[in-house]
Amino acid sequence: MTALLDLFSSGIVRTVLMGAAMLGALSGMLGAFAVLRRQSLLGDALSHAALPGVCLGFLVAGGRDLGSVLAGAFLTGALAALVMMLIVRRTTLKTDAALGIVLSVFFAVGIVLLTVIQTRGGAGSLGLMTFLFGQAAAILRSDLWVMGGIGLAALAVVLAFWKEFKLVSFDADFARAQGFPVTMLEAGLTVMVALAIVAGLQLVGVVLMVALLIAPAAAARQWTSSLGPMVLLSAAIGAGSGAGGALISATTRGLATGPVVVLIATAVVLVSLLVAPGRGLLWQMLAARRARARISDGRMLATLQGLATAHDNAGYPVEQGMLQTALGAMPPARRISSLEQRGLIRSVTHPPETTPHWELTDAGHAEAAALSGQPRKERPQ
Amino acid sequence: MIAAVFGSIPAMIILTGVLVGASAALLGSFLVLRGNAMLTDAISHSIVFGIIVVWLLTGHMSGPVQVLGAALTGVLTVVLSELLARSRLVKMDAAIGLVFPALFAAGVILISIHARNVHIDVDTVLLGEIGFVWLHTVTVFGVRVPVAVATLGVVLAVNLAFVLVLWKELKLATFDAGLAAALGFLPGALHYAILTLTSVTAVAAFDAVGAILFIAFVIVPPATAYLLTRRLWLMVVLAVGLSVAACVSGYFLALRWNVSIGGMMASMTGVWFALALLFAPGRGLFAQALRWRTERLDHDCRVLVAHLFTHEDTPAMAEENTLRALVDHLRWPEPRARATVLRAHDRDLIERRDGLLTLRPKGTAVARAIFGQRDH
Question: Where is this region: Disordered (chain A) (predicted)?
Answer without folding.
Answer: 348-381
